[in-house]
Specification:
The protein is α/β, with parallel strands linked by helices and 345 residues long. It has a single domain, classed as 3-Layer(aba) Sandwich (Rossmann fold). Helices cover 39% and strands 9% of the residues. It has a five-stranded parallel beta sheet with strand order 1-2-3-7-6, sandwiched between helices. Strands 4-5 form a two-stranded antiparallel sheet. α1 crosses α3 and α2 runs parallel beside α3. The chain is globular, with a radius of gyration of 20 Å. The relative contact order is 0.17.
């Protein structure tokens, strides 16, 4: 197992143990995502799937800092890393993505719409943009209750063109709410390149109109994300308001596993694969004296066993029955539960 060394450089952005936590979850996301893609192409995962391969760091680092018990998460359809970093068990994710009746969604959701209400991780809505204003609503509740919590809202550069984002940014900026917007710019909104979606490439320029910091970073460079994410979360908890991030990254697969991505140039893909966030972070850990190659290999082997165990548990579990689905749509007969009344001062 990778271990920190006592002579680690003082310039490390986090203690060695925390850096290894980041690595573990980053690698876990990569390996689990690869497994899910394999299950799709072997006919064991229904519908389609939206891989996060290549852009894992955009999820892992922000959630590492915004991971208090009552923080909340408002994801898009490619945020497997956020769910993993939040602590949703792999077996629960496998049950949802494989559409098993034992999942929290009873197997009735598209494989991508995972969530965990107990961990304040809300399932993504297939209507792009719906999570922006709802996440801001959660941040408003935190402020009204005087709770030091943070709402994390994830979106792609394509989704940043939706009108709901500007409503959310305006309200969050006006009321100085504890919400962080993370735009994951992977350069392609499905098959549309960024220069055909947006008048500017730097989407953080929009932040100035809402009186909040706008920070653009290399989303594949884990060490460079650490300081700004830590600072944004600290600002939010201290009541200093929201932050708009743009993390430049790249998805290795098409928009989904059903998309061959033949609209892209192979040289472009090769360029971004050379900036693999997992491989570059592992090299950085070794060069910084935080881990050894052998130790990282041992971690990888252990994670592969965890993933296989989760999949082996979920696969034989029952699929949802065609009957009874209305029970997940309509409330049962009887009076609604009593409202919880809160008094704010």
């Amino acid at each position: 197992m990778a271990t920190a060394v006592s002579t680690a450089p003082a310039a490390l952005p986090l203690p060695p143990a925390d850096l290894l936590v980041l690595h573990r979850h980053l690698k876990l996301c990569r390996l689990f995502d690869e497994k899910l893609v394999q299950l799709f192409f072997s006919g064991q995962l229904y519908g389609t799937y939206f891989p996060a391969l290549g852009q894992e760091a955009c999820d892992i680092v922000p959630v590492f800092f915004a991971n208090a018990e009552d923080d909340s998460y408002w994801p898009s359809h490619r945020d497997l890393g956020a769910a993993i970093m939040r602590g949703i068990p792999l077996v629960d994710l496998a049950r949802t993505i494989l559409a098993r009746a034992t999942s929290q969604g009873r197997g009735m959701a598209n494989p991508t719409w995972w969530g965990d209400t107990g961990r304040n991780y809300l399932a993504f809505s297939p209507a792009i943009g719906n999570q922006y204003c709802v996440g801001v609503g959660a941040a408003l509740a935190y402020k009204m209750r005087k709770e030091p919590n943070v709402a994390l809202v994830f979106l792609g550069e394509g989704g940043s063109s939706k009108g709901q984002l500007y409503e959310a940014l305006n309200f969050a900026g006006l009321h100085r709410l504890p919400v962080i917007f993370v735009i994951q710019n992977n350069w392609w909104a499905e098959s549309v390149p960024i220069h055909l979606q947006c008048a500017v490439e730097d989407l953080t320029l929009r932040a100035i109109g809402f009186n909040m910091p706008g920070v653009r970073l290399n989303g594949n460079d884990v060490p460079s994300l650490i300081g700004p994410c830590r600072e944004a979360v600290a600002r939010a908890r201290a009541g200093e308001g929201p932050t708009l991030f743009q993390f430049d990254t790249y998805r290795w697969h098409g928009h989904s596993t059903a998309d061959p991505a033949n609209y892209r140039d192979e040289d472009e893909l090769a360029y971004w694969k050379a900036q693999d966030p997992v491989a570059t972070f592992e090299a950085w850990l070794v060069n910084s004296g935080v881990a050894t190659r052998q130790g990282l290999a041992e971690i990888t082997a252990g994670l592969e066993r965890e993933i296989q165990a989760a999949v082996d548990t979920a696969l034989p579990e029952p699929e949802p029955e065609a009957t009874g689905y209305l029970g997940a749509v309509y409330c049962p007969d009887g009076p609604p539960p009593a409202r919880i009344q809160r008094k704010y001062t």
